[in-house]
Design goal:
The protein is an alpha/beta fold. The chain has 17 helices and 14 strands. A 6-stranded mixed beta sheet has the order 1-2-10-7-8-9, with helices on both faces. A 4-stranded parallel beta sheet has the order 5-4-3-6, sandwiched between helices. Helix 6 (about 110-120) links the parallel strand 3 and strand 4. Helix 9 crosses helix 10 (about 210-225), helix 10 (about 210-225) packs across helix 12 (about 270-280) and helix 13 packs across helix 14 (about 310-320). Residues about 1-30 have low confidence and may be disordered.
Length: about 450
């Protein structure tokens, strides 16, 4: 397609003042203007190597008063949108470098994508992981075909070791950055969404430190239709992108430590290219609370049968939090970019989200220690259609009068209204019942 001159000028102006950094050891020399032709070329080159994921109408639409379409990038083979940028990056390497191999040093989605696609392309691939990396991640990376080496107790130790091995053996050390090649691969998401959803009004992306998906896709969408609103969403706890945009450069001196729950969205801003593109082409960046992200994960699990991580759910969290009222009645696409939620976190996230959503509650009351009193309590719960999850009785350490028992009960309800009805019914019978506030 021919580039519309106005959008080409926007892209060129966004990148014209970027200083060329020598700190990157892998691809900094390939930083250049990202053009629509670059994104189109990437889409053609990777079409047989990544999934063209569905962008489906969601049952959540009625709940939030707009037509919601979910772009399910978590259905990629490694569960992440990063595959798009990685595959285009690897296929763009010179053949002699492909023969020598590549090396990465992290347990991120980027490293998983490198491990899988390098193996598929028969490129030798080495992944250095710290010794405290989740065993499940190590196992998965090996199954993708990479040679995994455990080294050091911190990410910095692993990166130093990887750079040394790269220098000694001729491997190309890769770390996620915002080269034009990588951004072009990620930008193919914007092309697909525009093709899959007619009359699109807005697209919501995860943001944060690694905003390459947001920047690359914004370049594609704004070229195809400048009137499509492009919105980024990040965590209130790690407002990396907003702080970097205010400062006019990637934030380096703030303590934005990577939070395991949030993944890449909590890391430092990794480059000026994507930051400048975001500043020029993205209409809005909003921040959401952790509670909203957890409820968003619950909504996607219930309504879409989609088990996603915080990075994948953070786009929907902006609607859960009511941060985008201007989208009411509009046609909106949300990028669900990652589904790599570790199993040990899954149960904790669901339990916490149910509590935040007022669907699991706990109360305590004191009953006389007589036959039938517990049965009467259970009859009330059954009549109110509350599901008992746990019930405990305490006799030894009760401070009330003799021959009484303290009962603590955890129950599941349908929603906030149902919880209020149950509370009123119990207080009518047991005025001293105490509710545990979330």
């Amino acid at each position: 397609m021919k580039i519309v001159s106005r959008n080409e000028e926007l892209l060129r102006d966004a990148l014209s003042r970027i200083p060329q950094s020598s700190s990157r050891t892998s691809l900094s020399s390939s930083n250049k203007l990202i053009r629509f032709e670059d994104i189109s070329a990437a889409a053609f080159k990777i079409q047989c190597g990544v999934q063209k994921t569905p962008c489906m109408y969601s049952r959540l639409s009625k709940q939030y008063g707009m037509d919601i379409y979910l772009k399910k990038e978590f259905l990629q083979y490694t569960g992440s949108v990063k595959e798009r940028g990685v595959l285009y990056l690897l296929t763009s390497l010179p053949q002699d470098q492909q023969r020598k191999g590549v090396i990465v040093a992290s347990d991120s989605n980027f490293s998983m994508a490198v491990a899988y696609h390098a193996s598929e392309l028969r490129i030798p691939v080495f992944v250095i992981m710290s010794t405290n990396t989740s065993p499940a991640r190590v196992k998965m990376c090996r199954e993708y075909g990479a040679m995994v080496i455990s080294y050091g107790t911190t990410a910095k130790d692993s990166q130093t070791h990887a750079r040394r091995l790269a220098q000694e053996n001729g491997y190309l050390y890769l770390e996620e950055e915002d080269s034009a090649v990588y951004l072009s691969g990620l930008g193919t998401v914007g092309l697909e969404v525009y093709e899959q959803v007619p009359k699109l009004d807005a697209v919501i992306f995860p943001a944060g430190g690694h905003c390459g998906l947001l920047a690359g896709s914004a370049a594609a969408l704004k070229h195809l239709n400048p009137h499509v609103s492009v919105i980024g969403v990040e965590s209130e706890s790690f407002p990396v992108l907003q702080e970097s945009l205010k400062a006019g450069h990637p934030i380096e001196d703030r303590d934005f430590r990577n939070h395991h729950f949030y993944g890449d969205v909590s890391g430092l801003c990794f480059g000026s290219n994507s930051l400048q593109l975001t500043g020029k082409l993205v209409d809005k960046v909003v921040a959401v609370r952790e509670e909203d992200v957890l409820i968003s994960m619950l909504r996607l699990l219930e309504y879409e049968r989609a088990t996603v991580d915080a990075e994948g759910a953070i786009g929907l969290a902006a609607l859960v939090a009511g941060k985008l009222p201007e989208l009411k009645g509009k046609r909106v696409a949300i990028i669900i970019c990652s589904g790599n939620l570790e199993l040990h976190l899954l149960q904790q996230c669901i339990a916490r989200a149910l509590t935040l959503d007022n669907r699991v509650c706990r109360f305590s009351l004191v009953l006389s220690d007589c036959p039938g009193d517990i049965s009467k309590l259970l009859e009330i719960l059954a009549r109110e259609e509350a599901r008992v999850l746990d019930i405990k009785q305490e006799r030894t350490f009760v401070t009330s009068e003799l021959f009484t028992v303290e009962v603590t009960c955890t129950v599941e309800t349908r929603d906030k209204i149902h919880t209020a009805q149950l509370r009123n019914a119990l207080l009518e019978r047991y005025p001293t019942a105490a509710w545990t506030e979330r």
